[in-house]
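Dear colleagues,

As part of the handover before I leave the project, I'm documenting each prediction I ran so the next person doesn't have to rerun anything. This entry is a single chain, and its sequence is reproduced below.
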Amino acid sequence: MLMPLKQGRRQELGDFLKSRRNRLQPADYGLPIGTRRKAKGLRWEELAQLAGIGLSWYTWLEQGREINVSQDVLESLARVMQLSAEEKNHLFLLALQQPPAANKPETIRADVQTVLQHFLDHWADCPAYVTDHKWDVLAWNRAACAVFGDFSAMNGKERNAVWRCFRSASYRELLVDWEGHAKRLLASFRSTSTCYVGEDWYQELVQELIEHSKEFQQWWPRHDIMGTPIGTKALLHLKAGLMMMEHITFQVYDAPDLKVTLYRPLPDNNTVATLAKLLEE
């Protein structure tokens, strides 16, 4: 059964706060450890005192109760918990459905998919695709299909980057370091989807992956948060063999919920020539 939207956000907020509290070391705050300490990380009362908030209030917040929270309190929690910029953004979106004032993004949306497709086609020798806030692949070029599979032949689920990462055997075989990629993707997905916690599509996707992927079931409770990483990726293509690509993801200014991911073939392992030959087929 799907839980109500607000309840889902409150539970996610409580779980996130608990996960971060458990990571804090008493010694880092000058607190005695003692032989009788059973709590993992800081105790509720220790965290509340350091943040300058009431113990009962913080306990209710972590338990997912329906209470109001101010930006000042969130700033204090972020400071004490030593949250990264991405984690702080995640915290604010869960609690207030808006990011911190200092990095609030534009929300204007324009229909730019046609123009994006022109750019994708222009990058003929670089695999590229566009994803939305659900991580659904909306547009792609021929090179992307040659390397990652024919997106036009996939159904809706198969074109979701998160679902495909954990449920597609062929995609798992393509990535030399699948585990590292999957962990980074999961942390990035959680960071970018904070606004949608509790929505039907979000709950259905997470629930299905929990039920059908042991890795997702194991990693999801960690509440890892990460920005969209750039770097180099090794791909073991069924026809072309080992290929080395560097990749980067751009946010579309006119439509902030759309992102363009671009792969550039590297000279390593003769990838440039290998991809060119693959595109000739």
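The mean pLDDT is 91. The beta strands are 128-131, 137-140, 231-237, 241-251, 259-265.

All the best with the project,
I.
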